[in-house]
Amino acid sequence: MQDYTLVRQGLPPIKFTGKLLSEAETADQSFKVRIYRSKGDRFIPEIERSYRNETVYKNASAFLYAKDAIEWLKEGEPTLGKISQEAIEKACAVDNEFASAWVEVVE
Question: Which helix (H) or strand (E) holds 83?
Fold first, then answer.
């Protein structure tokens, strides 16, 4: 466990103790997604956008359920972007609750 303070644009920072489940980024590091789990079992996705090595946007949010964190990473779109999906799939490899949320079950 580690202490984190995640800066958010236009909102107060999120402070928590937890662990980083996954991280994914574009080759040029202009877009990064990290997914954390707090010691209180909240899922915290974080998005960071940069331009010419300068951070231009950062946001994060805390969720009780992994499915809500996944939905937040869609940023209002019907599907996830490639980097967000990569971060989710990496989180699934280390967190069973996250893996259970990243499957569509049909009968």
Answer: helix 82-94
